[in-house]
Amino acid sequence: MTIRILLADDQYLVRAGFRLILGGEPDLEVVGEATTGVEAVECAQRTRPDVTLMDIRMPELDGIEATRQLCAMESEPTRVIVLTTFDVDAYVYEALRAGASGFLLKKAPPEELVHAVRVVAEGRALLDPTVTRRVIDQFAKTSSAPPKPPSELATLTDREREVLVLLTDGLSNAELAARLFLSEATVKTHLSRMLAKLGLRDRVQATIYAYEHELGRPRR
């Protein structure tokens, strides 16, 4: 199936570069472009893209709020990859919390951009655990309030909590299954129940949640 893509960036040359790279792939199609956050939301509602590449710093409506609105769409919400110039941009943290499926540096090579779109379109997360940890640490420096122990953690079974902690290692379902000596189907069940109990959208938000509450550390 062809993966439909929306480009949201206020810089024409950035969009043109992305369009050139993505348009050369037989399974990828750019179905729309937006120069503001408002345009991104409106264009997504019209074109129903599978993946949106979203610049964080957008005029009219920033990329964070635009991401939140796109991920809340009732009918076939698009998956969002947020774009940033710096891997410690505090805005990246907020975008991930808003529902983005991952983030990508604008300096990434073309093959990494193509790979990112395919990964997210498949419903997987696009997270480098080490970089994600740096993003969260950077944000934490601006907040003096320690994280409150979440009461909902008490509702998790030991296995569900173990899955949550292991997500901070950036493990796939297959890797989680191997680590826990379980089948992938069983891992998916634990993951689904854990997300439901914590009120989280996907494994990306679960990873952020685990980092916030100091439940794990990325692999060195």
Give average pLDDT, whole number: 84
Q: What is the CATH superfamily label of the largest domain?
A: Response regulator
Q: Which CATH class of the largest domain?
A: Alpha Beta
CATH topology of the largest domain: Rossmann fold
Helix content: 40-55%
> Uncertain segments of ≥5 residues (pLDDT<50)?
none
Distance between the termini: 37 Å
Cα-atom radius of gyration:
17 Å
Spatially, the strands of the biggest sheet line up as: 2-1-3-4-5
Can you tell me the overall shape?
globular
Q: How many strands, what sense, and barrel or not for the largest sheet?
A: 5 strands, parallel
User: Roughly what fraction of the amino acids lie in strands?
Assistant: 5-15%
Number of helices: 10
Q: Count the strands?
A: 5
What is the level-2 CATH architecture name of the largest domain? 3-Layer(aba) Sandwich
How many domains, as an integer? Answer: 2
Structural class: alpha/beta
The H-and-E topology, N to C, reads as EHEHEHEHEHHHHHH
Modified residues (4-aspartylphosphate): 55
InterPro entries: CheY-like_superfamily, NreC/VraR/RcsB-like_REC, Sig_transdc_resp-reg_C-effctor, Sig_transdc_resp-reg_receiver, Tscrpt_reg_LuxR_C, WalR-like
Keywords: DNA-binding, Phosphoprotein, Transcription, Transcription regulation
GO molecular function: DNA binding
